[in-house]
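REVIEWER CHECKLIST
Item 1: Sequence provided? yes
Item 2: Single chain? yes
Item 3: Sequence as submitted:
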Amino acid sequence: MAGTVYVVGTPIGNLGDMTTRGVETLQKVDTIFCEDTRVTKKLLARYKIDTSCVSYHSFSGFGKIAQAIKLLQQEKDIALVSDAGTPTISDPGVKLVRHIREKLGEATDIRTVPGASAVTAALSISGAPSSSFLFLGFLPRKKGRKTLFKEIAEEKRTVVCYEAPHRLLKTLTALQESLDPTREVIVAREMTKVYEQVITGTAAEVLAHYTTHSDEVRGEVVIIISGLHRTQSVQKFRR
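Item 4: Structure as written out by the authors:
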C-alpha cells in the first residue's frame, strides 16, 4: 500500500475558520502540497504547524506530480491545500488528484478533510434558490465569453461564478446586456473578512453601485445570478 492523500479545505479569508481536523491532518502528514507556500505558511504559523511544504500550482510541470507519487510510493502521507477554500474546486489541484488516481489506483487512499468553499459560502448568504445550481468557476477572459453569457441568460437555475475584481465591471456590463432586466444578481465580496459585503439587485443596479463606488471593486468576488426573476432594490450588508 502507498501513503494517503488528504484533500484539506482551508479558510477563504478568516484564518479562524480552519477546522480542528484540518489542523490535525496538516500536523501529521509528511508533506503539504500548496499553491503558494508563502500563503500557506501564514496559515501554518497561526496553528504552529511545521510540516514541510511543496508548491503546486497551475504552472507546475509533471515533475511535481511525480514527486507526490514518489512520496506516496514510499508510504509517506501528503496533504493538498489551495490558497483559500476547498482544493480542486476551480483549482489546479484537480490535476494532481487525477494523476495520483490514475497511477496508484486502489494502492492509495484519497480522503477529504472538508472545509470552507466560496461557492457554498456565497450561496448561503445570497437568498438565491440553491437546491439546483450551475457552477461555472472563473469566467473565460476572451474565447467563448459571448456565447457563455447567452447561455447564462437562458439558464433557469441559479448560476454561480468567480470573477477577478479588475473584470467585475466588464462582467456586470455583459450581464446587464444579456439578462432579463428583472433577473436578480448578487455580488458577494471579501467573504469572512473585515469588509465582507453583499450587493443585490438587477444587473443594472449592481453595475451602477460599483461604478459609483470604485473603491469597493477589489478583493475576492463571487457572482450569483439568481434563478428567481424578480426586481429587488440594491441592498448592502456589511459585517
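Item 5: Key structural point noted by reviewer: Residues 229-234 have pLDDT under 50 and may be disordered.
Item 6: Recommendation: ____
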